Amino acid sequence: MITIDGSVGEGGGQMLRTAVGLSALIGKSVEITNIRAKRPNPGLAAQHLAAVRCVARLCNAEVEGANPGSTTLRFSPGQISGGKFEIDIGTAGSLTLVLQAALLPAAFAAKPVVLKLTGGTDVSWSPPMDYLKEVFLPAIRQFCPQITVNVMRRGYYPAGGGEIDVRITPALPRSTEPDWARFAPIVAAKVPNIDLMRRGRLVCIKGVAHASTSLAPKKVAESIAESARLALSRSQTQVDIAAQYSPAQNAGAGITLWAIFSDSGEINDDSIRIGSSSLLGKMTTPEGVGEDAATQLMQHMNSDRAIDPYLADQLIPWLALAGSGSISSTMTDHVKTNIQVVEQMLGKKFLMENGIVRRV
């Protein structure tokens, strides 16, 4: 059994999600101790429990310690079967963070996976759903090109209640080779290299400004979108931001932006995307939300790094599965901590130097 100390590095829930997702993928049991030791409320919260439940159902795992507030979890995976599953976090816990764990095994399940998930689609301290769809999923397209995410209902803090439909058709079903030692080279041969060292030319900027239908009379989504467009006007490129409304259990709003780069000047499978987001809060205005997201995006675009730091930490496990790879990004604590977990789980080594992560 592999033992992961959850107090290492940034000491948050990402260590749990990565460890459990990789445990299911490689078929090795894992024990995570000191879970979320550096958070104000240590231990498992609803979102973390939902991620564990989701991955456990995907691989028929035996789990010990999956209780609210638990600081130790043992996860013993079975075969990744696939199928249809429904998971309700029961709070506004982030659905994208549940998927952060679940997509690792689901992308290599024995058969297609359909997930019906309920919780928060756009909440603080986690990637918004549009970021997952438009920035993260394109970055892992080589591993599994057939992943679709449909947002049926937005879920904002505090009620949650967002609903999404996720469908994954594995390109490399794990049933073709259940032994991980023999399956890993097959994966590496499919994705021989991930190279995210340079962006190419800026093609366009896109975005989605969203709000609950209760805010439609005030045209909140339109105000957010227009503020972002104005702030991005100096980028001297095409800016296309949609304004959308969705039923939700409580009022909420936000925006996700993404810039698309390509050597060819066209949007294609090799395009690199960087993203940003912002949410409406008690102390913010719609105009401030749009400007905040635009400012973040411009900062990422003006840096000399190929991808934004939020994408970098999410890509680390996938980088380890490829034959080789390197990325250029800001080295956050999340990036460093995820590297430590992946190295321990997979035995792969990374080199971090001057804002560059390389598999060695």
- Report the biggest beta sheet as strand number plus sense, adding barrel if it closes: 4 strands, mixed
The CATH topology of the largest domain is what?
A: UDP-n-acetylglucosamine1-carboxyvinyl-transferase, Chain
CATH superfamily of the largest domain: RNA 3'-terminal phosphate cyclase domain
Question: Strand content of the residues, in percent?
Answer: 25-35%
Helicity range: 25-40%
Second-tier CATH architecture of the largest domain: Alpha-beta prism
Write up what this structure looks like.
The chain is an alpha/beta fold and 360 residues long. It has 2 domains: 2-196 and 307-359, RNA 3'-terminal phosphate cyclase domain (UDP-n-acetylglucosamine1-carboxyvinyl-transferase, Chain, Alpha-beta prism), CATH 3.65.10.20; 201-302, RNA 3'-terminal phosphate cyclase, insert domain (Dihydrodipicolinate Reductase, domain 2, 2-Layer Sandwich). It contains 9 helices and 16 strands. Strands 1-2-4-3 form a 4-stranded mixed sheet, with helices on one face. Strands 5-6-8-7 form a 4-stranded mixed sheet, with helices on one face. Strand 15 (350-353) and strand 16 (356-359) form a beta hairpin. Helix 6 runs parallel beside helix 7 (286-302) and helix 8 (309-321) packs parallel to helix 9 (333-346). It is globular, with a radius of gyration of 20 Å. 51% of the residues are buried. The mean pLDDT is 95.
